[in-house]
Amino acid sequence: MKRVLITGAAGGIGRSLRETLRGVYPALRLSDRVALAPAREGEEVDRTELSDMPAVERMVADVDGIVHLGGISGENDWPVILEGNIIGIYNVFEAARRAGVQRIIFATSNHAVGFYPREQKIDHRVVPRPDSRYGVSKAFGEALASLYSDKHGIGVLCTRIGNFGEKPIDKRRLSIWISPRDYTQLVRIGLEHPDIRYEIVYGVSNNRRSWYDNSNAARLGYRPQDDSEPYAEAVLAAEAGQPADPIAEHYQGGTFCASEYMAKTPQP
Length: 268
Ligand code: 15L
Known about the structure:
This protein is an alpha/beta fold. It contains 10 helices and 9 strands. β1, α1 and β2 form a beta-alpha-beta unit.
């Protein structure tokens, strides 16, 4: 990997990877729709709207691998999701194919499978159960990645990210938290592992309360170093006595499931 592109580089994960991947590859190309801090040594800064195909083609020129974080990072109205996460990811994969890019790491989300109940441990083989239009867009991205892997030979690692941050912020996030250093490790596996064709892994730390069987990530060499448990007492104490929505509490996707919920009988 000589030149690695990060889309969505102005977001929380992008800003973190800009630091942790600095100097790991000879060139980091950082792109976002908004302005970024000026390039330092070993960096290139780019400004691209992912719905603009000619601009996306320029963005991917001469890169060996892409970490695709760009797009909308939560629930939104359909036109916004359509442009940012459906048209946007199509443009990235199609431009990558035309440019001969061999590797893509896709930042998919726990919300692609958010309607699994919390008592069920799920692995990378479960069918999608999106909990939002946002979750549907992530499931679409996973399917598109599968197509470009099978048909065009691009190696893709789909990282179903739980919640990225310095520490877990609530009870739900104790089960799905990922630390910056663990996510960096996963991204590096995606870029550097010699045999990735199409893989789904969970982007979570080694959390004792995890809802995921992340054996596929372990098979690829992922050895997460962090666990949310040391934060559990403080997180649970801060939440004690707060009213809990029964739908949000029942499903892994939490409030993404409860929002706009109208079904009379909850699915198991
Ligand atoms: C996500 O996919 C979002 O990008 C992030 O903002 C959080 O909402 C996270 O999921 C989560 O479930 O905590």
